[in-house]
Amino acid sequence: MLKEIVIAFQAYSRAHQFVSRHKLWKWIIIPGILYTALFAVGLYFFWNSAETAVSWLSRAIDIERFLRHQQSALLSFFFLMGGIMVRLVLVFFYFSLFKYLFLIIGSPLFAYLSELTEALIRGKEFTFQFDVLVKDVKRGIGLALRNSLWQTVYTVSILILSFFPVVGWITPVISIFVECYYYGFSMLDYSCQRHQLSPSASIAFIGQHKGYAIGNGMVFYLMNFVPFLAPSYAVIAATISLYHQNLE
């Protein structure tokens, strides 16, 4: 799996060279600006609502009075760390919901961009086919909904774990890895679809090659420091990383 993660990392560097060589910047900047604006506004409102939810829960179970009664610095520290972990997991959960919403909205673009990328790699003239695009979009939306359901199940489990002292401190890390896998999964599936893999076959293939999905998602997360590059680069990098694979 480590080798696959490294390949997925390297694919982003190759994606940058690919974008520059083929002058695909319009497919990067326009969706990137939309992604950045939606993400920033959504994160602002979700962070405020998450803070309100955690504060309400704290008052409901009267943690402050309990800690004053115990007079334990160590116990207070554990509860402080627990509150931080809960907030972080909630933010990751928001990012998960936002990501799938954006995947659904941007599905036509991502399907088109993946098709275009492989055509350019093969040195073939790209022929736009509306019926193929519609088919790809429907599949992309279906898998995005399926992945969002499973990830919600995992996230709720992680959120419950985050309430436990010490053990709960690693929950943000677990949450990030789950996020990376499912985001990379969505990006890789466009290539699987193009090679005639059914949804179940695609799930099985990516499940056997988790490194590609995790690696793609990890770099995507890091690229959110320059968010307007992240989504389209992820599609191109995923297409490049699977190009020489035997998709069977």
Describe this structure in words.
This protein has 248 residues and is an all-alpha fold. The chain has one domain. Helix content is 83%, strand content 0%. The chain contains 10 helices and no strands. Helix 7 packs across helix 10. The model has no long low-confidence stretch (mean pLDDT 78).
User: From the alpha-carbon coordinates, what is the Rg to the nearest angstrom?
Assistant: 20 Å
Helix content class: over 70%
What are the secondary-structure elements, in order, as H or E? HHHHHHHHHH
How many strand segments?
A: 0
Low-confidence stretches: none
Strand fraction equals under 5%
What is the number of helical segments per DSSP (H or I, 4+ residues)? Answer: 10
- Basic shape: elongated
Could you give the topology of this structure?
Layout: H1 2-22, H2 26-60, H3 63-70, H4 73-105, H5 107-122, H6 130-161, H7 171-194, H8 199-208, H9 210-222, H10 230-242
Helix pairs in contact: 1-9, 1-10, 2-4, 2-10, 4-6, 4-7, 5-6, 5-7, 5-10, 6-7, 7-8, 7-9, 7-10, 9-10
